[in-house]
Amino acid sequence: MTETGEAPVADFHDVVELHDVVRRFSGRPALDGISLSVARGEIVGLIGRSGAGKSTLIRCLNGLDRPEAGRVVIAGTDITRMDETALQPIRRRIGMIFQHFNLMSAKTVAENVALPLKIAGQTKAARQKRVMELLDLVGLADRAGHYPAQLSGGQKQRVGIARALAPEPLLLLSDEATSALDPETTQAILTLLQDVNRQLGLTILMITHEMEVVRQIAHRVLVLDGGRIVEEGPVARVLASPQTETTRSLLRGLSPVLPLDVAARIAPTGNQALIRLDVYGPAARKPLLAEIETVTGQPPRLVHGGLNDVQGEPYGRLFLALGTADADRITAVIDRLSPEATAVELLGYVPHDL
Description:
There is one protein chain. This protein is of the alpha/beta class. It is 33% helix and 29% strand. It has helices at residues 54-61, 84-91, 109-119, 124-137, 153-165, 183-200, 211-217, 235-240, 245-251, 260-263, 288-296, 327-337, and strands at 14-25, 28-39, 43-47, 69-74, 77-78, 94-98, 171-175, 203-208, 220-225, 228-234, 272-280, 301-310, 313-321, 343-350. The strands form 3 sheets. Strands 6-7-8-3-9-10 form a 6-stranded mixed beta sheet, sandwiched between helices. A hairpin with a 2-residue loop joins strand 1 and strand 2 (28-39). The model is unreliable at 1-10 (pLDDT under 50).
């Protein structure tokens, strides 16, 4: 341990570890046996609807709430049963950014950022140096003397990020940090968080109900529902083929779905088969359409869908008309694609003029 009571960085790999954590309110579980880990330098999105348990999980991570069962380990230290005095050096390693910024209106930008350093007992000169470094990092060096009321929403959130980074945390918790911002400002904040992650190697756990936010920044996603993690994996894989109805609901608007007029023309029999093809990772780079043509003798026609990219990992969903209704050829196509694709499904049959 260091003089401040913090574990040396070399002592651990996972910054966050939860082991079978249970927390109930009035007999109902807010967290129902949660286990998860977040590695050093990773950006993880924790997504779920209101009431899924996200806020309770955050409070357990920073020691503001105590689980009834299980263990919470931060940077190699089990904080589950720590008293308030022992928790203080751990909390200094956890930065928080909030939906509504939580800035002190009577203090300037610089004073807001300096506050955790002042509480930690740093000298005025050390505080001033660190504050200006951080304001430069978040692009607000020229706003040091301004008050929160003089800032835009995006600028306030940048101040919140600078304040969270002031004590050089190992973990940054982002609690719905972009949900009060417009799309353009949200994009700017997400880009800033990505830069902070790359430059400082900072571990970020993002709690949100916005899958678009997770898609843009996270390396991995965890889906929380009813106090349980119901799905997890690389963002592109989950986007390409969500396994639970909760995830599919949260993804609505991000994953392609057939237009209503096309869906209405699908029938149990017809001129040509219509399939849904989900691809992720290396499979998305392979000439799968050419492989279909080798089976059917003609190129498939793209009816809807497309490919996208998350953190350099391709994923996509394609709705393809095969140009044939021959059962043997359709089976051969599905057999040919199944080893490579995340999912292949025969949706039905559509006319040639679709």
